[in-house]
Structures are given as structure tokens and as C-alpha cells.
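go over my protein:
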Amino acid sequence: MGEGTRYPVLRVLEADGAVVGEWETADGGPARKVYRITDAGREERARRVRDWDHHIRAVGAVLGHRGLRHA
């Protein structure tokens, strides 16, 4: 994923409260922004995984497959 994709996505996630970005300084190096996932971000991720699992099972049922799971 390139910078042109990564940082706009991180800004949206930060605005939505899914991640928190903080500036970190290191000795001898430039400051950098580091991100950590919030509890709300973890909950949203869990919800999306559940939705994806449901979708995979529904598609599997239509196609006659059993036990399909996402990777």
C-alpha cells in the first residue's frame, strides 16, 4: 500500500475514532506520527470480521460449500 493510499485511510480512521495518531520524536531522527488502534477501532474490526464471516457462509451456502472461512 503506497503513501497516497495509506495516509488518507489513516486520517479517515483517526477522524472516525478508530485510531489515535501521536507524534513521536527519536534522538537524531525526524519526528514521525505513529498510530494505535482504539477500543472503538477494535470493536469495528470485530464487527467487520463477523459481517465478512456471515457473507462467506452465505456465499458458500449458495455455492454448496460447507465450512468456508476467510483467510
Observations:
- The beta strands are 19-26, 29-37.
- The two ends are 19 Å apart (CA to CA).
- The CA atoms of residues 17 and 40 lie 7 Å apart.
- DSSP finds two helices and two strands in the chain.
